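Z., the sequence and structure:
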Amino acid sequence: MKYFFSAGEASGDLHAAQVIKELLKLDPGADICFLGGDRMAAASGRAPLIHFSRMAFMGFIDVARHLPEVLGNLSTAKEAIRAQRPDAVVLVDYPGFNLKLAKYAKSLGIKVYYYIAPKLWAWKSYRIKQIRRYVDEVFSILPFEPAWFSERGVGVTYVGNPSVEEVEEAIRALPSRDEFLAAHGLDDRPLLALVPGSRVGEIKANLPVMDAVARRHPGLQAVVAGAPSLSREFYARFTDFPVVDGATLGLMANSRVAMVTSGTAALECALAGCPQVVCYRAVGWKWAHDIFLHILKIPYASLPNLIGGRIDRRTRDEVNREAVRTGVRGCVVPEMLVHNCTPDMVDRQLTPLVGDTPERRAQLDGYDRVRGILHTDSSAAANVAERIYRSLGGR
């Protein structure tokens, strides 16, 4: 059978690659075309139609600035779908782009599957109408999502969280700490991981704050997790700390503490057992922060808190007021968002995590809670591949 995959960033590339591997076990003759990255290329044995490095634009301003490229990518993807006429279009996260592909594919009578449900419970809930109209089946990786979607008339299947198995498998394959340090030319001081994201806009906003905080801890060795599509010269505009490429998980697993831009990396950091402060800085004005919190329909922004955070009787506004007052928004990890994401505020949360402190132990206990909630007996990727293959008539 023929399959068309679309993943617009590094995490989607990783998760889609695992599904492709499982699909090829069920359907060895599968013809796979995709938008994605190097991991999907390795899994499928062919080059991407468009590499995600040409697609990873974040936010309204970034998309507007690159609108010709965005429209060009969309046109190329639609033409490929029209020409290939796949049996299934499999969309992975990246909803702003992928929901447009869903509409087009559905107009051609092609089955559409969505892996890693769009986080409509957090923002842009109006997109639920597009999911109803254009997506045949949605696969969720967060255990609280099926109930939310079901209440709004969309059936969603929880397939397990791929980060759990991916992180556990990757950690088993990691070199020792000494080997990691030697491979990257690092000394034996405890490591402070700076994980500013994979998109240009995220890095520009967050890495300068992380750099400033790291300079307050000379006893730690600060190291930046580099995105595979970006050059060392780009990072040199914001920091002179060493950059390691393609080794984010190894860096987090070997670090004493980390600063992580909110996203999949925050969950991976938790699963790797590295205490962290979640950072998300955009425009640093308080009014922008208030708008951000108004748009968000949840009390937390990071996955460790959304999965393992305390659910109590406080309203979201009460939690947000506490965040403004104390700088802490979560139960598992501290979240420093928008105008709270300053060197002083981030350092206030990072410093207690460095030593053997109650704050550090509490966060590690929270990580155990997150692992327990996400644990399943089967592979998320295998579950997705089997459901797609069987629904298309495979045996």
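The longest helix spans residues 67-84. The chain has a mean pLDDT of 87.

Let me know what you think.
H.
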